[in-house]
From TrEMBL:
Gene Ontology terms describing biological process: Mo-molybdopterin cofactor biosynthetic process; protein urmylation; tRNA wobble position uridine thiolation
Protein name: Rhodanese domain-containing protein
Pfam family, one: Rhodanese
Key words of the record: ATP-binding, Cytoplasm, Metal-binding, Molybdenum cofactor biosynthesis, Multifunctional enzyme, Nucleotide-binding, Transferase, tRNA processing, Zinc
SMART domains documented for this protein: RHOD
Length: 296
């Protein structure tokens, strides 16, 4: 991430990145060179737009002084995005650039504009003001030059799909292992934790879809369904064994998070299972097991 803010000769910068290290880099470069930063983002069916470091308003670090843990960040590659949403946000981003460049000024300097594509609705949220203690634009800044932002954020500056490693080896199985389980008709529950819109595109037979968000929120209807399926599985098995639950998603990232969530749950059935992640997810299945399986 070699970058010299002294080379930033443009009057206005538009940030269209899809990763946290780049956002911090671009923000700091703009603050250190005194340039406004028009920032837009999109994920799934939502978009956001604001202008940082403009007319006394806050910079990105004012709002996010500490980077989020890498495993909590979802980018478009992992979470998906409806194609028209980036186009809509990009048009509004270009509009703000033109307004600033033409001297009309932007009203987004201390406002976060949020777009909900599902309801076709815009709303604005007032941002907190510029922070005196900000590390780069505050009264006594500690950031006077650009740094290693990948080290600062603990993640790579790339928009490509990330591969998380949240679980130990004994908490994961390969797609080849799961294929053997299917071929041998071993009793188990396959839990697909992708959003329903992705499940509609493709899924493995007999999988139970409970999105990761529903697991994290412990939605009652989904928890009841999960317990019922585990109870049915236990009845199929002999002895006092722990029913196996295998978790799958597109790439094996969400499924790892889901394993951690399920392992922390307690209940009449949920706390008496063995839960494992299927490494690499459905895209690994398509690559190594079934070349005809849809890839998206």
């Amino acid at each position: 991430m070699n970058f010299d803010f002294a080379d930033l000769i443009y009057d206005i910068v538009a940030d269209c990145s899809d990763n946290v290290p780049t956002r911090y880099l671009v923000n700091d470069a703009c603050v250190l060179s005194g340039k406004p930063l028009v920032s837009a983002s999109a994920l799934r069916m939502e978009g956001q737009l604001t202008v940082y470091n403009y007319c006394g308003g806050p910079c990105y670090r004012c709002l996010y002084p500490v980077p989020p843990p890498p495993e909590t960040v979802t980018n478009c590659s992992d979470g998906g995005v409806l194609g028209v949403v980036p186009g809509i946000m990009g048009c509004f981003q270009a509009l703000e650039v033109l307004k600033i460049a033409s001297g009309q000024g932007s009203s987004c300097g201390q406002q976060l504009v949020m777009f909900d594509a599902l309801d076709t609705r815009f709303r604005s949220i007032k941002l907190r003001p510029k922070q005196a203690g900000c590390a780069v634009c505050g009264e006594n800044p500690s950031v006077s030059q650009l740094m290693d932002y990948e080290a600062f954020c603990g993640s790579a500056a790339t928009d490509k799909c990330r591969k998380l490693n949240l679980l130990s080896k004994d908490q994961r199985i390969t797609v080849q292992d799961y294929k053997s389980i299917m071929d041998n008709a071993e009793p188990h529950l396959l839990l697909d934790v992708r959003p329903p819109v992705e499940v509609d595109i493709c899924h493995l037979p007999f999988s139970l879809n409970i999105p990761l968000s529903s697991l994290e929120e412990r939605k009652s209807e989904h928890m009841q369904l999960l317990q019922e399926r585990i109870s049915q599985l236990k009845q199929q098995m002999e002895g006092d064994c722990r029913p196996p639950v295998y978790v799958i998603c597109k790439l094996g990232n969400l499924s790892q998070k889901a394993v951690q969530v399920v392992e922390k749950m307690s209940g009449s059935e949920v706390d008496r299972i063995t839960v494992k992640d299927i490494s690499g997810g459905l895209m690994a299945w398509a690559k190594r097991i079934d070349p005809t399986f849809p890839q998206y």
